[in-house]
Amino acid sequence: MIYPDEKKFLELSGQGNLIPVGREVPMGAETPVSAYIKLSGQPAGGAFLLESAETGGRSRLNGEVTEKAPERPDPLHEVQDLLAGIRVVSAWPGDPPPFAGGAVGFLAFEAVRFFETTVGMAKKDDLGVPDACFALVEEFVIFDHSQKTMRPVVQVKVGGDPRADYRRGLERLEALERRLAQPAGKSSTEVPRRPEGDLLLGATPNMSKAEYVKMAEGMQEHIRAGDIFQVVPSQRFTVPFNGRPIDLYRALRAITTPPPTCFVWKWPDWPWWVLPRRPTYAVKTGGWKSVRLRARDRGAKHRRRT
Questions:
Q1: Is 246 left (phi over 0), alpha (psi -120 to 50) or beta?
Q2: Domain 2-190+239-293 sits in CATH 3.60.120.10
Q3: Are 211 and 162 spatial neighbours (Cβ–Cβ below 8 Å)?
Q4: What are the extents of the domains in the chain?
Q5: What pLDDT is attached to residue 293?
Q6: Per residue in 286-299, pLDDT tens?
Q7: Backbone dihedral angles phi then psi of residue 104, each to the nearest 5 degrees
Q8: C-alpha–C-alpha distance, residues 220 and 231, integer Å
């Protein structure tokens, strides 16, 4: 059953200008990864996959991204401008999903300076990766593992003729479902292997050992001086990889304990893919009436009473 029906859509069209239209169907043999492969098949297109562990969450979200926030000095204001004229109106039957439309994206570490003005910019930017990247979602699929269902959804923009808008939305929904019905193609957890014994995988660090030790010693001095109480010295390793990013993602999920959230991002016309290290959340709340807390990361000790 398609929801909302035409009568309900016309009613909602007076309350907003973006209405999700979709239907709930059995998952069958479809998986979030196979759906992602199908939706990200166009070279210039963008797509994303957001997952929560099957034991700890219900939702898996796949989608395509279209309009991006322009690159400006302060990306947070651009995100506000991107969403300023959008009013999503959703009236899902029963328990609503945690996502009904809007923007998806990420904030890089350097984005902290847009929230805390006392934090200066990094001395150099040798990657050229955006501090923030958000895009509007027009088509997506929500997986609910507890109910063994999925919901293909299209966002319908409401214009001067809501009835015609609804019909066009149904055509897009049918096209999305046809894409999901196609074979996903080959994908596996096997990734290109290095020669046996090459444990470093050809990794290239972004600093020398001496530079890393000097950085760590400087942090220890700040701790002793009382300037800081916790800090993580880090360095970046660059490793060549000739496989598909989605296969690397599947391999990471297969060899590690599933984290509470996983993700894959592929942006339109951009060369970057974003995959997780081991993402965690501090607080999760919202759809499907769940609230979860994660108090500490691996390796962290409980703080004693002071």
A1: alpha
A2: yes
A3: no
A4: 2-190+239-293, 204-238
A5: 44
A6: 554 444 444 444 44
A7: -125, 155
A8: 9
